[in-house]
Amino acid sequence: MTISLIAAVSENGIIGGNNQLVWNLPVDTRFFMKTTEGHCILTGRRNYESIPEKFRPLKNRTNIVVTTQQNYLKDAPGLKVVNNIQDGIEFARSLSERELFIIGGGEIYTQTIQQADRLYLTEIKAQFKGDTYFPSFNRDLFEETSRIICRPDAENAHEMHFVTLERK
Ligand SMILES: NC(=O)c1ccc[n+]([C@@H]2O[C@H](COP(=O)([O-])OP(=O)(O)OC[C@H]3O[C@@H](n4cnc5c(N)ncnc54)[C@H](OP(=O)(O)O)[C@@H]3O)[C@@H](O)[C@H]2O)c1
Question: What is the structure's pLDDT at 18?
Answer without folding.
Answer: 97
